[in-house]
Amino acid sequence: MLRYLVFATLAVTGSGILDCLAIPRRGLRSRRGFELAGSLSALMFGICSAMTGSPAVSCLLVLALLLILALSSNAKLGILGEPLVFSDLVVAKSFLKEPKFYLHAISPLARAALLVGLPLMLVTLAVVSWHGATTTRIAGAITALLAFATLRALISDKSLMSRPCLAQDFARHGLLATLVLYWRRWKETPPPEPASQEPPAPSAPTLVILQCESFCDMALGSETQVDLPNLARARARAEASGRLLVSGFGAYTMRTEYGVLSGREETDLGFRAFDPFLTAGSEASHGLGNKLARLYPERLFVHPHDMKFYARDRIMPELGFTRLIGEESFRNAPRFGPYIGDVAFGAFIASLIGPDGHAPLIYGVTMENHGPWSDGRLKEAGGAEAYALHRRNSDTMLGLVMDALDEKGSDAVLVFFGDHRPSIPQHSEAGPDRSTPYVVVPFSRSGVRPAASVTRDVTPAGLHRLILDAISRHRRQTAPRIAPGENRGENDPRCGEAGAS
């Protein structure tokens, strides 16, 4: 038993020391942070001991896991400007689906260690568990139960980390404390009140929304200025444009995407904001497709990639889209670099725009500009040079869709925005300004353009409201005028009780 207690103490104290390796940090962690980290470490040690019957191996497993978490958090902070958070662990399965999105963040030495160490660890665990001591298993089960009870009592304190302030909480309380408490607060967050649908109307403009992967208009690498003629053309005729104030950097497409689709501010989402797709089903009425269902019988979501990534195959129908168009529709489409090119994607979007009078809702998410931005991409010297070529294709795509809407002659609204900036070491790194451009461009069959263009900064949720405002403005402009005394008809939704008399 003494041996068991020694290794248990080593696991708990060692975990506290390793937790301090994770940055940001501000001196020693808080007392509550150490209590939470110690309880969680004891819980993990107890579970491992109950499974393996070996306190020494259990101690090594706990310390190895904490070291991996700390190093992973530091790597993520360096690339994306944000330490590890609970939602990163929830969606860890994405690593297995798309390892190329993540492997660039792991050093070659670490990859080799994983490749050799993981099989060795599994074999060792199997052998040790077969010969493990029964007394150690019993002690481990008791330790896990006591640690779980202690951890549950600690996280029941509602005053601790009651609202998300990740950088400050992480620096003060530590990696393990924020992981477990942020997860708990996320679980406790209630869903919002249901949203209402837009009322039916005689007509609605074609609505095309283009979410452009990793698109920004800042100069990178050797660029002194950025030449994006179609973005300039869109801004010149936009009714609204400016900076989109996204919170993510280099990743977290789903945060921007959900804000535009739901109109829910991240301050309102609370702990759900770290990955709002995880709880999208309980907020489905806020989805743009559901809100506009009475105006657009046909609501398309288009993305030239696996729809199972981020669970879009499940989430987008919940948010009101009637049809998903994924990678199977782009099998023969040309790639530009690793992914389907934006020019081909723009041509496909243009083909979905119907003739005058046919008004679908189309939400397209591009893929060409996705990282990683390693040297040699597109045979360029560096990632920034390759990104410049990709971004020009995104601008060409915008021009293609604008030209298609002009040629169709329909009333339409085009929305274009970047979901986040690219993460390119030494050229584009996380900082306080993470904004991307957006434009809201109206198209009118009469050729009339807005009298004035509004330039302002908006959040993704604010862009959602701008979209609804643009649709409402069109409906007011095209609503039929009723002469004084004219009977609206008993089925007219504007009649109320008077119309049925």
From TrEMBL:
Domain Sulfatase N-terminal: 205-429
Pfam families: Sulfatase
InterPro entries for this protein: Alkaline_phosphatase_core_sf, Sulfatase_N
Alphabetical keyword list: Membrane, Transmembrane, Transmembrane helix
Zinc is among the record's keywords: no
Gene: wcbQ
Taxonomic superkingdom: Bacteria
Region annotation Disordered: where it falls in the sequence: 474-501
Entry's transmembrane regions: 6-23, 43-71, 108-132, 138-155
Protein name as annotated: Capsular polysaccharide biosynthesis protein
